[in-house]
Amino acid sequence: MSGSTTTGGRRHAGAWVLVGLVAVAVAIAALSLVYGASRGGEFEGADGQAEDTITEVAPDYEPWFEPLLPELPGEVESGVFALQAGIGGGIVGYGLGVLRTRSRQRVQPAASGTAAV
Q1: Overall average pLDDT of the 89-116 stretch
Q2: pLDDT of residue 27
């Protein structure tokens, strides 16, 4: 009976850890936005910053490839980026699920072997 209390307590503690991590992530995002806005920073992508730096360092530089897609409107570009993020998240989630399933399958035979003894 005490084992189930321990397991329930661990789940409860895990929930608080999750809530804490989400709160920290939200705080970091909010503070970075406030800090960036207070310094007069514009929300510019890394591609634009890299292009400006390359132009300053090597004005005669020519790109060695062309983009796969032409210049897209902002809404379409955001949608493509969200699609890319979703596909990446699905791949990472699948990988984590496979790893968790493998670890559970290793623990279950060991646990059932000790229960039979």
Answers
A1: 83
A2: 97
Looking at the chain, list the stretches that DSSP marks H as alpha helix, in order from N- to C-terminal side.
2-38, 46-57, 74-116
Q: Residue 89: helix, strand or coil by DSSP?
A: helix
Between CA 34 and CA 29 the distance in angstroms is 9
Dihedral sign computed on CA atoms, order 36, 37, 39, 40: positive
3-state secondary structure of 63: coil
Task: Classify each residue of 71-87 as buried b or exposed e, where b means 16 or more C-beta atoms within 10 Å of its C-beta.
Answer: eeeeeeeeeeeeeeeee
> Phi and psi dihedrals of 84, rounded to 5?
-60, -45
Mean pLDDT for 42-52 is: 76
Say how far residue 107 (Cα) sits from the centre of its chain.
28
Of all residues in the chain, the percent with pLDDT exceeding 70 is: 79
Instruction: Give me 31's structure tokens.
Output: 């503070």
